[in-house]
């Protein structure tokens, strides 16, 4: 019964699992989105960046799945509808060649903006210390991803 009681000081197990599942969807969106960009872009350098970012998102997703299970939750199976639309957009942009590399970087930056915002929201929740530490570490990774993608986009715009 204690799991269902919610005070200002403690989140319920269900609250923790909900936050973790939201971030899991976010990580999967990043994993699939970066992989889609890697498949579409011609630049070997960008392909490697996108594949590396995809692998980092997959690793984060794996960590979140473990935490969700530790709290007795069921990990959500997929990403978000918005993430699926993003991946579809990436494929369309790539197939029509709409300034492909720059378009991919712009779309990835939008995706990382959303990821950073979701981590910020999660960190406002009242979470157990170890969960907060894991989320903080992942949030820092999302911010690094965002900053790297933004820097690459800026370089491409200035060519």
From TrEMBL:
Q: Which Gene3D superfamilies does its entry note?
A: 1.20.1260.10
Q: Where is the composition biased (Basic and acidic residues)?
A: 141-153
Q: Which residues form the DUF2383 domain?
A: 15-124
Sequence segments annotated as region (Disordered): 138-159
**Membrane spanning segments where?**
none
Identify the NCBIfam families for this entry.
Answer: PA2169 family four-helix-bundle protein
Name of the protein in question: DUF2383 domain-containing protein
Organism, as annotated: Variovorax paradoxus
């Amino acid at each position: 019964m204690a799991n269902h009681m919610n005070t200002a000081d403690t989140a319920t197990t269900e609250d923790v699992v909900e936050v973790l599942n939201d971030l899991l969807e976010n990580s999967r969106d990043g994993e699939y989105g970066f992989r889609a960009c890697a498949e579409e872009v011609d630049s070997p350098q960008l392909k490697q960046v996108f594949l590396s970012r995809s692998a980092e998102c997959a690793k984060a997703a794996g960590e979140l799945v473990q935490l969700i299970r530790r709290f007795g939750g069921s990990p959500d199976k997929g990403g978000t509808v918005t993430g699926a639309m993003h991946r579809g957009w990436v494929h369309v942009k790539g197939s029509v060649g709409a300034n492909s590399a720059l378009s991919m970087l712009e779309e990835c930056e939008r995706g990382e903006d959303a990821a950073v915002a979701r981590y910020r929201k999660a960190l406002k929740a009242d979470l157990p210390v170890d969960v907060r530490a894991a989320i903080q570490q992942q949030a820092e990774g999302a911010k690094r991803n965002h900053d790297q993608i933004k820097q690459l986009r800026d370089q491409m715009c200035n060519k």
